[in-house]
Amino acid sequence: MPQRPGAWVATADNGGFRVRVVVRSDPNQRFSVFKNMIVYRIAPQWQVELTQVEDALAKAPFQECGATQEKSLGWVPPRGELHGPLVESVGGQWILRFMVETKVLPGSVLARKVKEKAERIEKETGRKPGKKESKELKDEAKLDLLPMAFTKQGSMWIWIDTASRLLVLDTSAQGRADEVVTLLVESLPGLSVSLLDTQTSPQAAMAHWLKEQEPPVGFTVDRECELKSANEEKAVVRYARHPLDIEEVQAHIDAGKLPTKLALTWDDRVSFMLTEGLQIKKVSFLDTVFEGTKADDGGFDTDVAIATGELVKLIPDLIEALGGESESGVASAAQAVASDRAETAPAASRPPMAAPAPSAPARKVAGGGVVTGPREVPVDTDPESAPF
Question: pTM, whole model, 2 decimals?
Answer without folding.
Answer: 0.75
